[in-house]
Amino acid sequence: MTPLDSTTSCCWEWPIDLTQYDQSPWLSETEQCALVRWDNVRKARAKLPRLYRPLQDVTALRTKQSHLNGCSKAQTLILQEVQRTQQPYWAWSQQAWLELICRPSIHPSARLFITANAYLLCDFHLVHCTGSRFYLSALGRLVFGKELFDRECTRLHQALQNIGYGKLNLQQNFPSILAAVMLENRNPNLESFNVELLERARENYTMQARSIGKLSHGLAAIGVLPKPLRMRHYVSWKEKSSEGIAPEWVDFCHRWRETSTLEPRTRESNYSFILRAGLWLAQSHPDITSPTDWTVETCADFLAALNRLKVGEWQLHSFDYTGRSNLGVPLNANSKRSVLYAMRRFFRDIQHWDWVRLKFNPHYHLATPNSILRLCGPNPRAIDDPFWLKLVWASLNLEPNDKLSDIWYPFEMLRAISVIWTHAGLRQNEIVRLRLGCARIQSDPIMNDETGETIAPGTLCYLDVPAGKTFTAFTKPVSAIVRQFVTDWEAIRPEQSTLIDQKTGERVRFLFQYRGRTIGQNTLNETIIPMLCAKAGLPLEDSIGKITSHRGRASAVTALASVPQGMSLIELMRWSGHRNPKSTLYYIRTKPTRLAGAFAKADQMSHLIEVLIDHTAVVSGAAAKGEPYQYYDLGSSYCANPFWSTCPHRMACAGCDFNIPKDSAKGEALAAKAFLHRYLEEVPLTPDEQQIIKGDLQKLDIMLDKLKNIPTLDGRTPLQIHGNEQH
């Protein structure tokens, strides 16, 4: 930060002493006669000293020889206007001066001096209405002096260059904007500028609102302002229309917003919801204008109306739904839950603050119905694995020529943001609010207590994460490559002034702070991700939908949970910055590919049959002599047929000589053998058998009918074995 210059912090004095002039609003008889016969400036010197001398004093201030012609023309035009109006210029209104300055026939050089005379002699305040801004820098030098104007301009230029602005752009556009603010302030010293002045200047110079915002960044850098203004002048998103809502309800809503301690964004969204409830009241219950009028029946009506609500209904006039693709679509479950939370919070707060006495219990009578709760919950959707791996590769291999045409951030800054997004699993807000020096190298070896392995120094780095949505500030281990790219950015990062962290209220230096401000909240989604997708040759959407910053966080957490010997639930909770492991569970859902593999394995196991091998028969040689040694477990019996899997009767055993009932003496003796080992054998199924497994009894009857006359392994058919009985 540049220290304040004591030579410029003193008060500036008006260059003309107006008290020495006769400012009478009337012309004397002598002046009237002189004006009737007046035809040039030289004659006016002697005959109109009261009118001519102030004009000449302004000319003598800082006028170069080359400017005398324009100055003489300006004096002539002013005196001619005095002659026409029969009023001295001391009595002219602001509008009269403006009409003279803006007269099309006046030469630009004369217009400059007319404006200077109006400003210095007659307290002219409509400089911003005089048209083109390009002569304002000349007017500023004329009014405030070239030396002082250029010195203050240089101070501000240097401060802006130090925080990252280009020199050429500043030289081309900035002096006029600075002069406009100085003229608005009626004081050229930068130390006299304040937020109210800049806001007023933005009102007057709406087309230059962004440039005035840029000026505020320079003022913040030299310590004049506590923080810069927003770059664009806009209608605050907090201003919401109350048209069509009962005034008493609006008063309660506004009072609640001014008193609530919720986070600003949450408070504003809740304020919008309770205003919309006022619209519903005006349409359905116009007699209810105050929270004290609500009853249990009103709550029931509200729940029913909300459950049927569609996008675009209960619309505030300050919000334009034109062109929205989801207009008329039923409100989703999460939105309904948010509305009900806002209503419960509103009623609970105003009752706790003793503003009203309610006739119902908000916690009970405005509870979110189970039918809505079942459809709610976080839905972090991991990016498709092939897409995610390519995005990780792209972040590590970015080159300067990969920047998209409309990106003006430094390449090193963009690369550091990209690597942190793909490797650190942070929320977008946490990335924006990372502090300078947040990445620290792992300097000591780490011993793994479970495996005994040692992680060498420099393998990892520690990333300090600021307090976020659900957790206090904490430190997480990440890959050392993160620190490498962060260090590259810190090495060229321009020195920046401290800014206030809106989450914690601290004055800090942010890591991704450039030109006196942090990166925008949408930089990841609108700048980083499109750049990475272009580098990787990917579209902006995968099979699920648009690739977003939060889906990248979900992919990073899911990857750590899905690998063999991955992190435990508690470890992932701490690494992700969650307060509750339930939140982490949303991120580590089983991947569809992993679920498909598990299903395929289970489906294969469902087609296996247990086989008993008699190792005694194998070792003794009895098996080689033709003795049975392999038995298939059919549930209530065993089958000694070694080719059971090819037997046509395997789905419904016909009970041939190879069948050994388990409750028979032979079956019990077989089960009691000591060296009987059990194995699984895969059985291929025909289409008919697959239908039978799925429970198709008609297919089973048809198959049994087909097998009645097919011989078993011992040569007999099922009919011969069981006589004429029906299966």
Automatic annotation (TrEMBL):
<dbReference type="InterPro" id="IPR011010">
    <property type="entry name" value="DNA_brk_join_enz"/>
</dbReference>
<dbReference type="InterPro" id="IPR013762">
    <property type="entry name" value="Integrase-like_cat_sf"/>
</dbReference>
<dbReference type="GO" id="GO:0015074">
    <property type="term" value="P:DNA integration"/>
</dbReference>
<dbReference type="GO" id="GO:0006310">
    <property type="term" value="P:DNA recombination"/>
</dbReference>
<protein>
    <submittedName>
        <fullName>Integrase</fullName>
    </submittedName>
</protein>
<dbReference type="GO" id="GO:0003677">
    <property type="term" value="F:DNA binding"/>
</dbReference>
<keyword id="KW-0233">DNA recombination</keyword>
